[in-house]
Amino acid sequence: MHRNPDPAAEAVTPLSGSRMKLIARAFAGCPDRWQNVVRMDPDTRWHLRLHSADDHDVWLESWLPGQETGWHDHAGTSGVLVVARGELEERISVLNGVMTQVRHIPEGAARRMRRRQVHHLANVSLAPAVSVHVYSPPLGATRGYEIGAMGLMRSPWTEAGRRLATRRSRLQ
Ligand SMILES: [Fe+2]
Asked: How far apart are CA 158 and CA 139, in angstroms?
């Protein structure tokens, strides 16, 4: 188990998954709240915090084809994402990285991101995608992982906020 690097985040009562899903769907389903601010960046995965409160925050993310997060967790925060445009693929570490589950997230679908879950998100489609992410408590950091011969291992990078490592993957 990993300690949350932000002690203040543990002082708030986290929102329920259903509440986070409602908020994410409300933002994703209202393009007027994000379509004029969303950007697509070919060099780095783009994100913007749309809303901040004591007990949660809301992030807008864009994904060009091939952009991905790398394996990561959310340092003790849970969340829900909704794909507002396009589609994403999620890989979830199972049995400490010995196995992975792959899930397709189509436009309009929601996915829960559990507190200790290690996952990997990517746009493996040929079209840009946009997603809305709600985190509660607010996201303090993301921590990277690698999957090697011994399964899941922490990688050196830990970044504040939503600055996930950005890597490009080749489409097959
Ligand atoms: Fe994530």
From this structure: 13
